[in-house]
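Suppose you are handed a protein chain with no further information: no name, no annotation, nothing but its sequence. What can you learn? This example shows the usual starting point.
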Amino acid sequence: MSVRPSRGGRCACGFLRHGALGLALALLLAGPAARGAVAAGDAQVLQRLAAIRALKPATDAAGLERYNHLMDESWQYFTAHRKESLPTLRTELARELRQRRPNDLLLLDVGYFLYEQHDDLDLAKRALFALDPEAPMVRINSQELFYFAHAVAADHDARILPFIGRVFRDGDVSVAIPARKLTLGDTLLCAYLYGVYGPDGESALAAGLADPRHRNRVLETLIWMGSPASDDAVRALLDEAPDYETFTRATTFLMRAGGPKGRNILLALDPAALDARSQDFYKQLRGSIESTSLATLTENLARFGPSAPIKPEALEAELTALYDSHGDLSGINPAGLLEAPLPRERLVERLVAIRQRGFYRITPQGLNDIEILDAVINALHYRDG
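A reasonable first move is to predict its three-dimensional structure. Written in structure tokens, the prediction is:
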């Protein structure tokens, strides 16, 4: 569990970045009263950082509550006194990174605060990449670790991909978000992190198929945010005659995200190469695989009711609204997108970008909308032009 809930989305407020020289000059010009105020603020920041360094894993709810109070109060102070706090926070975080054994909680907490405030992003990311995700205080704060990694992934920094792979794809992390009535297990954590990074993170994820220890998690994640680009990698996996658990996940991916090529890979399978359970599973699905087409996939969206064709002049406005709302499908019949007057590849590209934005919405409704967009995108792969 996490010691405390996420502190919300990114702060949209701007503020000045002070270097050491600029701060010194400001103090010289400000006069004794202002210098004393800044010195007091500096002492407050150092005191709060010392308290964070001193924290040890709690063993009861009361201890966790004390952590919550201390750390939330510190963030509130840093936010209310940005101008005084940020130079000291940057200095202390840089100092901590030079330590032989830095304090992992301080790296996490101060690094994330600087990142949320858009202040010295490179220093903040260095803190994230340097911390030990297995440290007890980091594991207790798994929610903050996830939100920090998610923010960096959303900014499309390629350095986050090995970190996601090591900590979330190959690790053992779960996050409870009670305020949003959501619990994210390993697969959903990976889906949000790779999904918000974007389509070109798919190859980094699919590389995990080579490791039998993690391939099932990779397949489950690909079902959420993968594409036909991973079909060949999954076909190679099927050539190894995997066990039932892997075979069912691979089949689900190929049918839900693999497009016509994924369907054809399954139709070309030799059932005799499969184990008994996999053969039975394949036999039950063979008819559905054979009949899969744009028409059958469209029928699956019939629960949203009849859809009126989208007029060309309205299409751009609707796609833009979906993008701006991070894929919120409220009031939109997704079946209508299947006949949208736009070339198939261009339409798929637009919807994939909208789905990527959907991974900003860490809510049950956001997940539901992503699942619907997945179905629309897969169906469009069956559309001619």
